[in-house]
Amino acid sequence: MISLTADYALRAMLLIARPETVRALRADEIADATGAPRNYMAKVLNAVAKAGLITSARGPTGGFTLAVPARQITLGRVIDLFDTVPLNSRCMLGNGPCDPSCPCRAHAAWQAVVGARRLPFLNTTIADLLEGRVAPHAIHNAPESLNVA
After folding, report:
1. Which among 84, 57, 72 has a CA at the least distance from the CA of 13?
2. Looking at beta carbons, which pairs linking 93-102 to residues 24 or more positions away fall under 8 Å?
3. How far apart are CA 78 and CA 82, in angstroms?
4. DSSP β-ladder status, 63-66 and 54-57
5. Residue 110: is its pLDDT beyond 60?
6. Are 42 and 27 in contact (CB under 8 A)?
């Protein structure tokens, strides 16, 4: 469903955002806690920091902390740093490219399915996961444009 890199990033964000985390966490601590290779986790954390979701500080008391409140960071925002949403350029009912200006019968329904699959990631925050709750709007209240009759 998501890449291993995005999975590591989400796990790191959850560790950093835990309420009991009262200090900056070092990359090696995060790697050890998530089972990620240390060098790889450092690269993942740097990418998340570059995106502005966490801050990093060097030195003996340095490490990574949230730059944005956990309730404002959706899972999709973190995942999208590492995973691209593949665009299906082929028509579902034909053997040629998809033409949105002249869609086939399946086009709108297929786009709705693809969009609905991302809704839980786009509507669930790091805080939601930490609090063990499913955001009420994560799945059941899909925008009208994504509802398939």
Report:
1. 72
2. none
3. 8
4. antiparallel
5. yes
6. yes
Give which of 97, 123, 100 is closest to 111, Cα–Cα.
Answer: 100
Quote the pLDDT of residue 17: 97
| Structural domain boundaries enclosing 139 | 4-146
Q: Does the predicted TM-score (pTM) go above 0.85? A: no
Is 65 or 102 the better-scoring residue by pLDDT?
65
**pLDDT tier, 149 (very low <50, low <70, confident <90, very high otherwise):** very low
- If one counts the domains in the chain, the total is 1
> Which alpha helices (DSSP H) does the chain contain, by range?
4-17, 27-34, 38-50, 75-79, 107-123, 126-130
**CA gap 12, 112 in Å, rounded:** 31
DSSP structure class, residue 56: E
- Is the pLDDT reported for residue 36 higher than 90? yes
CATH at 131: 1.10.10.10
